[in-house]
Design a protein that fits this description.
Layout (H helix, E strand, L loop, with lengths): L1 H12 L26 H26 L4 H25 L3 H16 L8 H4 L10 H7 L7 E4 L3 E4 H9 L6 H7 L8 H18 L1 H10 L3 H17 L8 E3 L2 E3 L5
Antiparallel strand pairs: 1-2, 3-4
Length: about 260
């Protein structure tokens, strides 16, 4: 268990940055702007630690991964997205999005079988609507649970008290893939496979965003403040299902969105 949790944290550190064409001075919605940075001193120290780990460990690994054939990386990304739907589907249901839950269930079934474990996005070619990820932090927000203070977690990166609690739901029974891998009794899934999946998820993300993250850091007057601002804005927009104005990543998942 400790090995799984530790590796998950390390892989998710790769997702602790934000990609956006901005200097971080975006204005937040009124609600998201109310989130306080109660632990700013500690948060900035943790942020610096995470950035150091990224430059020394994760970025070099991502550069090596990027040298793989495009088809290999595309198939890997598709498979990882397919696995993430196992968290999205129950959240669709909890949010009352029953039609979307049905669509995502069908997408998962088709891509897992015909698409060979999700390597090929057959569902998209069949006309299924675009896949949008959901998580337990978003569900709690939709239910009216406040974000609490903004926090920067070691390795994981930007979060809030609410979103941090939401991520723990995954290992408390909310992630079917985690349950099947760690508690299932079969020859196909194991703790080791779950760990490897989390590591590859982080590497895949980092490899896709090498230049964009460098540009954001270079163009930000305060990189820490940029990421805090964009993270809070993005989370609020996803909770309300509005159209985000940026491309942002949080807790392991990049979401590309169109401006309003």
């Amino acid at each position: 268990m400790k090995k799984i949790l530790l590796t998950s944290l390390i892989s998710l550190m790769l997702a602790s940055n934000v990609n956006a064409g901005t200097d971080g001075e975006n204005s937040l919605s009124k609600k998201s702007g109310e989130v306080k940075d109660c632990f700013e001193g500690l948060n900035r120290a943790t942020f610096s630690l995470n950035q150091g780990l990224d430059k020394v460990i994760f970025k070099p690994i991502a550069k090596g991964y990027r040298k793989l054939p495009t088809s290999v990386r595309a198939g890997t990304s598709n498979a990882l997205i397919n696995i993430s739907s196992l968290i999205t589907i129950p959240n669709n249901i909890l949010q009352g999005q029953f039609k979307t839950a049905g669509v995502n269930t069908g997408r998962f079934a088709i891509n897992t079988t015909v698409g060979i474990l999700g390597i090929f996005d057959v569902a998209e070619k069949m006309g299924f609507s675009e896949y949008e990820k959901e998580d337990y932090g978003q569900t709690l927000g939709l239910w009216g649970v406040g974000a609490g203070c903004y926090v920067v977690l070691p390795v994981l990166g930007p979060s809030t008290v609410r979103d941090t609690f939401g991520s723990f739901v995954n290992v408390l029974g909310g992630d079917p893939y985690y349950n099947a891998s760690t508690h299932g009794n079969n020859e196909y899934l194991s703790d080791s496979l779950y760990v490897k999946t989390k590591i590859v998820t982080g590497v895949d993300f980092r490899a896709k965003n090498l230049e964009s993250l460098e540009n954001l850091e270079k163009n930000s007057m305060d990189f820490y403040a940029s990421i805090r601002s964009l993270y809070l804005q993005d989370r609020q927009q996803k909770i309300t299902n509005s159209n985000p104005t940026i491309e942002i990543m949080y807790e392991g998942d990049w979401e590309e969105v169109e401006p309003q």
